[in-house]
Amino acid sequence: MTKNSTETAGDGTVLVSILSGAVSFALSRGFTMAEVEKFTGVSGQDLMEPDDRVPEVTMPKLWNALAAREPDRALPIDFARAAPLTLCGGLTHGVQFADTLREALSVIVRNRIVLAENLKLMLVDTPELQMITGRHHLDHLDQGRTTEAGVGIMFRVVHEVLEIRDGVERVEFAYGAKGPVSVYQDFFGVPVTFDRPVAALVFRPGALDQTIRHANAELFAFVTQHFNDLVQRIEQSRQPPGLSKLRKAIAENAARGEFRPTAAAVVANMSQRSAQRLAANYGTTLSAMIEGTRKEAAMSLLQDPTTTVRTVADIMGFSDDRAFRRAFHRWTGKTPSAFRRDVLSG
Fold first, then answer.
1. Distance between CA atoms of 12 and 57, rounded to whole angstroms?
2. What is the distance between the alpha carbons of residues 55 and 40, in angstroms, rounded to a whole number?
3. Cα–Cα distance for residue pair 339/337, rounded to 1 Å
4. CA 180, CA 242: separation in Å to the nearest integer?
């Protein structure tokens, strides 16, 4: 989404602890809680549970109110400088157990929905360029202030949590400076440019390979599983009730090795035609939903080196392992054996 987008707010949510941090910052700048509620529609009661979620649009609303009071101050950088890193939940703490900067950033990118549902993060990792980019479809509402604050927080995670002090080469923002450029340069300690295509931390060559002092494979595996489960719950909560019911039926059938559309409809207590119509209303098909579940189940089973490819094919309901190999290659671009080798070696 470009910064000239006219996309509307949508119904995404953001972690309460993130908004709470911004509200605390607003209070420190002289706002009252009544004013915060007036500008955002969020009350103090809504902020009581840090793991709850509130509409994403509250963030740009609050930043716009702050900017109206102090239009020439780089407030997002002030916020990033002082905010407790715990506002991002356990994600910023958990990544310290990753082996390398690349692995830590990959976890943040994969679990970005935990922070905000419509946050777009991407890790660019090529021989010519290594960077993490950030944008949000609401950037146009606050001229990128929310994202700007997020870039500052990400920079502190790299420096303070992961303790990689010299990894960032330069910083880029999609909008103009909100205050003196010197404020940005003092905070980041590297060149900062504005009016770029996206906001980004650009890393020095080789920085992504730097090891993290607190690396712990056992703890990192726990962190990874925790956030996988959390992301799954968030994604399920976004589904319409009817579609969620159908997905649950497909998952229950998959556990029994049953992948027929008729069987999914029966478990969901609807006709196959109704199930197909429901899926079509949300831009998919019943067959595609089943195929996606089948793919995920196969990928999970292949991660167990004691399970043969033929056994996986049988569990997935394929007539023979050749049919399974063809389907798996269509799904992933890899053979089941190549996929297993890559996963187990990675």
1. 8
2. 9
3. 5
4. 52
Name the pairing type of β-strands 53-55 and 119-125: unpaired
Tokens at 212, concatenated: 């993290």
CA distance 316 to 321: 10
Q: Which residues pair with 233 in a beta bridge?
A: none
What's the CA gap between 82 and 165, in Å, rounded?
Answer: 18
CA distance 37 to 73: 23
- C-alpha separations of 280 from 250, 265, 276, 284, 285 in Å: 16, 14, 6, 5, 5
90 CB-near residues (< 8 Å, 6+ apart): 223, 226, 227
pLDDT in tens, 164-215: 999 999 999 999 999 999 999 999 999 999 999 889 999 999 999 999 999 9
* Dihedral pair phi/psi, residue 327, rounded to 5°: -65, -45
Structure tokens at 111: 């679990």
* DSSP 8-class letter at 204: P
Q: Give dist(CA 123, CA 228) in Å, integer.
A: 18
Q: How far apart are CA 55 and CA 333, in angstroms?
A: 38
Tens digit of each residue's pLDDT (9 = 90 or more) over 48-58: 888 888 999 99
What is the crossing angle of helices 336-345 and 286-302, to 10°? Answer: 50
